[in-house]
Amino acid sequence: MQAGRCLHHELLAKQSSCSGNLLPYSRLQNTRKATSFCSALEKQDQYAASSSEVEKTIGRRSLHLGMAATLPLTASLLKAPSSQAEPLTLEQVTPKIVPTTQLTSREEQLINVFDTNTYSVVNIFDITIRGRAAAVPEVDVPEGNGSGVVWDQQGNIVTNYHVLGSVLKGLGPNALKAAAGPPRVARVTVLGTDGVQQTYDGVLVGADKSRDLAVVKINAPPEQLRPVTLGQSAPLRVGQQVLAIGCPFGFDHTLTTGVVSGLNREVQSVVGSIIPGGIQTDAAINPGNSGGPLLDSAGHLVGINTAIFTNTGTSVGVGFAIPGDMVTRIVPQLISNGRVVRPSLGIQVASPAVAARLNVTDGALVQLVVPGGAAQRAGLLPTRRGLTGIITGDVIKELNGVQIKAPPDLSRVLDELQIGQQVPLKVLRAADDKAQQEVTLLAELASE
Q1: Of these residues, 233, 269, 290, 411, which one is catalytic?
Q2: What are the protein's UniProt keywords (predicted)?
């Protein structure tokens, strides 16, 4: 077959030669169609040939490029390492440490208060109670564990009555009158000014169960004792900053901070007595803080931590302290006499429940009058029966010029007065016809 002619042209040529080269009309039409068809096939063949050449060219170029890109990588992989990687130094693996920032003025103040007063705080616990294992095996928490305050350089230490409750209960009320001398009741650990802790035996000096206070004495060198600086609790304001230092759970010299949350609270102590005028604070107070100091921002004693309100046994932000003014009145008496002698009106005040049933909601209702006491001599009348039923006793509204809104107010004011002092009282008095009138009386305070 000649170049440029397809198989279909060859067949038509043979047919033409057999018929004498004369083509009828129908054959001519077929010939033209075949020619057109062959032309299309030839163009398709030419396009395919050119496409094949392009693909071959691209393939060769891709191969060359691929080889060129692969050669350096292959060479690097086949190249043997010259030596092992050098180990990292400590400097390379240690992050950058920034310098300590300067303390704020408030931080410096807190640090100074702690540094000054931590030597005035001791760890004290009842000698009759053995330590029990804590949740952490390394820590031993005595059940009678508490804190105390160095009162003077003679070795007098102030703490809570309930911290020594077990041993004091066993001694009885006449322990100080024993011929053998003051009984040993505590072990007291003191942090000396040289930074060394020493433990001493503590002997009982005096105790006041009604105000949850006790004083013990240790035989320590005066130069090792740093007494606390006494402040005033009367000027305290709600919101004022306070600090507590103590030995919670046996961790000595622990600082917590907070504010005065409330004043003049009626605090029920651990031993069951009612302490008037209590200071409420949100500074964390936990078991072991009892007996430790509550300080103002100047580092002055404004209270002795005594109790917490909690359902778990640990701090929930509601702690209470005995007001410092009360402490400074009671402790000198305990050191001097071994007990506290308080002025008294010689009355029994009705409980809030009894007063409410008699429609008394303000003041202190007199329920009973002690025969021969200061109240009877002054003319105070108790709650009694009359012709028309129960007659409400006198309701004390004011004592020595101080308003009495509730029974704790009466106790607090009496604590501030002296035996033999004459004080005015204002009372509301009910008659048989239920009418009330205000009466002013004068009473000379006697001892309890």
Answers
A1: 290
A2: Hydrolase, Protease, Serine protease
Confidence (pLDDT) at 420: 92
Residue 208 to residues 279, 330, 405, Cα–Cα distance (Å): 19, 8, 26
Determine the pLDDT at residue 43: 55
83 included as an active-site residue: no
Q: 210 an active-site residue?
A: no
How high is the pLDDT of residue 82? 53
Q: Is residue 28 packed enough to be buried (19+ CB in 10 Å), middle (13-18) or exposed (0-12)?
A: exposed
pLDDT at 135: 40
Residue 290 a catalytic site member: yes
CATH classification for the domain delimited by 343-447, as one of 2.30.42.10, 2.30.22.10, 1.10.246.130, 2.60.40.10 = 2.30.42.10
Q: Residue 317: its pLDDT value, please?
A: 72
Topology of domain 104-340, per CATH?
Answer: Thrombin, subunit H (2.40.10)
- Marked catalytic residue, from 126, 208, 212, 296: 212
pLDDT at 70: 46
Active-site position among 162, 208, 252, 411: 162
Contact 319/307 with Cβ under 8 angstroms? yes
End-to-end CA distance of the chain: 148
Domain-by-domain residue ranges, the chain?
7-62, 104-340, 343-447
Strands (E), 72-194: 121-126, 131-133, 140-142, 145-150, 156-159, 184-191
